[in-house]
Amino acid sequence: MIWTATDIALMIGKIVLLYAIILTGAAYLVLAERRILGFLQDRIGPNRVGPFGLLQPLADVIKMITKEDMIPKAADRLLFSMAPAMAAIPAILTFAIIPVGAPLQLFGRQVNLQIADLNVGVLFFMALSSVAVYGVALGGWASNSKYALLGSIRGLSQLISYELSMGLSLVPVVMLSKSLSLADIVNAQADMPFIVYQPVAFLIFLVSILAECRRIPFDLPEAEGELVAGFHTEYSGMRFGLFFVGEYINIISLSSLASLFFLGGWRGPLLPPIVWFFIKVGLFSFLFIWVRGTLPRLRYDQLMHLGWKFLTPLALLNILVTGWWLALR
Amino acid sequence: MPILNDIKEILTGLSITFRHIFRKPVTVQFPEERRVMPERFRGSIVLTRDPDGAERCVACYLCSGACPVDCISMAAAEGENGRRYAAWFRINFSRCILCGMCAEACPTLAIQMSPEMFHCKRQVMDMIYEKEDLLIDGTGKDPNYNFYRHAGTGVVQPRGSSPGEQAPADPRSLLP
Ligand code: SF4
Ligand code: SF4
């Protein structure tokens, strides 16, 4: 394919737009989380800055940026400053492969609402989510503090174990759609979303993505009751902000992937595709917040038990059953 | 199967929290909404007057001695009729813990806790209240009590003239 000026302009436009949408989305997800948690606990939540507290994210950003940027004396400076970026970048990169809507006709050509339709999309996502672990691991290690180190060790083992069940729960999806490209996976769900065929895989994926973005009940790497703040104990100011925003971007990206893999992505009746996509992502994000407002944190051994002795075998069994079903059909 | 039970428990929890979304929040949005405190709430301190309109406080230092954080100070003075009063009386509200010990110690019911609880200032020195700030025009709780009707007799009124008090006996009349 030869890139013309229009193609490049379109691509840059898409990237800038997507960037703006994710960052605003993440900022407002923080606000939404605080308000919804408030309602869950019979409180009101932040409502002072602007109407309904809508300017709160802006105030938070200003606060973060103007805070002193501290690096502990004993820290490994280079890794310490790189770690937040290593946590946030993979989360943002994941959006490169997410189709947010049906292809559009624009300037006489077809425009995919997706930055890159990789033919190994699922693998790309799995690889990125493994790379994201480095942010946690190095952040905790480089800050040279016992709490941070404990947090990052927990983070490592947790992410590795849940990565496995997450990957295995996606195998049936790939078997059904016979493609690793996300656009094809969405197309394969034209008649019926995969959640109907694969409820078990969906549940495993849901639990794994909760663990993957280190949210309650799997927030052991942060565990503020035990480890101060876990792997980002020593971080302050915008570096902490990057970890924080990274976590919320991760929520959005994992929510979009969950809706792509199991709910048919942007497909839906009546409403335009992009609206359907946002509704589904919003539902998953709400689920994340709702679960946070409800469940307590798991103990470390319970976490490992659930991952290795329950989810992984179940996912393997699910693959087996799906294989039989596909062969016998 | 224990796992099914666990899932059921999780779903129960989720449904409970979901129902709470639609509850009315308990938050009081402070500067705009203010709770009306009950009458006997231990809020900020006032100095009251007796039913005749005179200051109740006799500057006995009992409140100051009872205060666990030592935030009351005063200087006693005596009026022309022999009645004692506080020349100045000062409460440092930045230290007061609103424990009510002073009100309990006071023999004249002069110092009382009021339900007013919203005092916050930008300057810590503004938290020091002088007698003029503390003195109110009413009697507060127990509107009929007047210390000098029960004690302190001989100072502002002749002995044996307050209600419930017998005139002093003349010992000579008891002699055989
Ligand atoms: S309420 Fe307690 S702390 Fe305050 S002035 Fe009275 S005795 Fe002192
Ligand atoms: S307020 Fe009461 S306790 Fe305190 S000095 Fe006056 S009379 Fe005595």
UniProtKB/TrEMBL annotation, chain A:
Subcellular location: Cell membrane; Membrane
InterPro entries: NADH_UbQ_OxRdtase_su1/FPO (IPR001694), NADH_UbQ_OxRdtase_su1_CS (IPR018086)
EC number: 7.1.1.-
Keyword field contains Translocase: yes
Cross-referenced Pfam families: NADHdh
This protein's UniProt keywords: Cell membrane, Membrane, NAD, Oxidoreductase, Quinone, Translocase, Transmembrane, Transmembrane helix, Ubiquinone
Keyword Transmembrane helix: yes
GO molecular function: oxidoreductase activity
Protein's membrane topology: Multi-pass membrane protein
Transmembrane parts of this sequence: 12-31, 78-102, 122-143, 155-174, 194-211, 240-262, 274-295, 307-327
Family per record: Belongs to the complex I subunit 1 family.
Subunit structure: NDH-1 is composed of 14 different subunits. Subunits NuoA, H, J, K, L, M, N constitute the membrane sector of the complex.
Reported function: NDH-1 shuttles electrons from NADH, via FMN and iron-sulfur (Fe-S) centers, to quinones in the respiratory chain. The immediate electron acceptor for the enzyme in this species is believed to be ubiquinone. Couples the redox reaction to proton translocation (for every two electrons transferred, four hydrogen ions are translocated across the cytoplasmic membrane), and thus conserves the redox energy in a proton gradient. This subunit may bind ubiquinone.
Protein name: NADH-quinone oxidoreductase subunit H
Native organism: Geomonas propionica
TrEMBL record, chain B:
UniProt binding sites for [4Fe-4S] cluster 1: 57, 60, 63, 106
Start and end residues of each 4Fe-4S ferredoxin-type domain: 45-77, 87-116
Main localization of the protein described in the UniProt heading: membrane
SUPFAM superfamilies per record: 4Fe-4S ferredoxins
Cellular location(s): Cell membrane
Required cofactor names: [4Fe-4S] cluster
Pfam families: Fer4_7 (PF12838)
Stretch list, region Disordered: 154-176
Alphabetical keyword list: 4Fe-4S, Cell membrane, Iron, Iron-sulfur, Membrane, Metal-binding, NAD, Oxidoreductase, Quinone, Repeat, Translocase, Ubiquinone
Residues given in the record as [4Fe-4S] cluster 2 binding sites: 67, 96, 99, 102
PROSITE patterns: 4FE4S_FER_1, 4FE4S_FER_2
UniProt EC number: 7.1.1.-
GO molecular function: oxidoreductase activity
Cofactor, free-text remark: Binds 2 [4Fe-4S] clusters per subunit.
Reaction(s) catalysed (UniProt annotation): a quinone + NADH + 5 H(+)(in) = a quinol + NAD(+) + 4 H(+)(out)
HAMAP family reported in the protein's UniProt record: NDH1_NuoI (MF_01351)
Family: Belongs to the complex I 23 kDa subunit family.
Subunit structure: NDH-1 is composed of 14 different subunits. Subunits NuoA, H, J, K, L, M, N constitute the membrane sector of the complex.
Protein name per Swiss-Prot or TrEMBL: NADH-quinone oxidoreductase subunit I
Lineage start: Bacteria, Pseudomonadati, Thermodesulfobacteriota, Desulfuromonadia, Geobacterales
Underlying gene: nuoI
